[in-house]
């Protein structure tokens, strides 16, 4: 399967958000926008869809919706060119099945994020229908964390059950951890601090992508 590095845009201001997009323009084809409401997770981010829609960047945008009610946010982002995927959390206090149906009925890919504490058995019915799964390496909300290595077991279990499902991984993605993540079966690696806290974010992205592709090429079943 195709291996991707997805820069994660976690920003507290309009200027910080735009700066990160500028750094990835012409480098990364897709970015993930981290949307937090301060309720589902203990942090808030800047994510004004109207401003982003007015900018002329060329990305595929996906939303990582760490919010209690994702549908209104998705509605606002429908005006943004390149918006293709919405990832909701299994832990959100909503009807997950109805939300996934709504996303797909509106022509978007639907993803499901799974945080520590949520069992695969609890989301099995949803994994059969989503376009991708996103395994959280730790508690969502803040960039720069290390991931719990035991979360790779979740990736392995999903890959075993769903061999063709794109599987993302978020938290603790860096040059050191990429080979193990790819070996476990992750195909979409979301990186924030490993890219944007680097002296050269563009070079950092390229190195992560090269490391992921090398790991995939050297995998036993590659």
From TrEMBL:
Protein name: Ribulose-phosphate 3-epimerase
Organism whose genome encodes this protein: candidate division WWE3 bacterium
Keywords attached to this entry: Isomerase, Metal-binding
Gene Ontology molecular function, alphabetical: metal ion binding; racemase and epimerase activity, acting on carbohydrates and derivatives
InterPro entries registered for this protein in UniProt: Aldolase_TIM, Ribul_P_3_epim-like, RibuloseP-bd_barrel
Origin: domain of life: Bacteria
PANTHER family hit by this protein: RIBULOSE-5-PHOSPHATE-3-EPIMERASE
Any GO BP: carbohydrate metabolic process
Name of one Pfam family that matches: Ribul_P_3_epim
């Amino acid at each position: 399967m195709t291996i991707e590095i997805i820069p994660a845009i976690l920003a507290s201001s309009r200027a910080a958000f735009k700066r990160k997009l500028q750094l990835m323009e012409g480098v990364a084809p897709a970015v993930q926008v981290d949307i937090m409401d301060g309720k589902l997770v203990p942090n808030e981010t800047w994510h004004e869809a109207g401003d982003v829609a007015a900018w002329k960047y060329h990305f595929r945008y996906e939303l990582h919706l760490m919010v209690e009610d994702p549908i209104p946010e998705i509605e606002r982002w429908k005006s943004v060119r390149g918006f293709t995927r919405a990832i909701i959390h299994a832990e959100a206090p909503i009807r997950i099945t109805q939300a996934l149906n709504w996303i797909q009925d509106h022509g978007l890919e639907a993803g499901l994020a799974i945080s520590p504490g949520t069992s695969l058995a609890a989301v099995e019915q949803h994994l059969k229908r989503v376009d991708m799964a996103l395994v959280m390496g730790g508690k969502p909300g803040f960039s720069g964390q290390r991931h719990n290595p035991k979360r790779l077991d979740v990736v392995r279990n999903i890959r075993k059950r769903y061999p063709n499902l794109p599987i993302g991984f978020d938290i603790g993605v860096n040059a050191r951890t990429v080979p193990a993540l790819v070996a476990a079966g992750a195909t979409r690696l979301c990186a924030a601090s490993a890219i944007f806290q680097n002296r050269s974010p563009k070079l950092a992205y390229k190195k992560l992508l090269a490391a992921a592709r090398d790991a995939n090429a050297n995998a036993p079943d590659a």
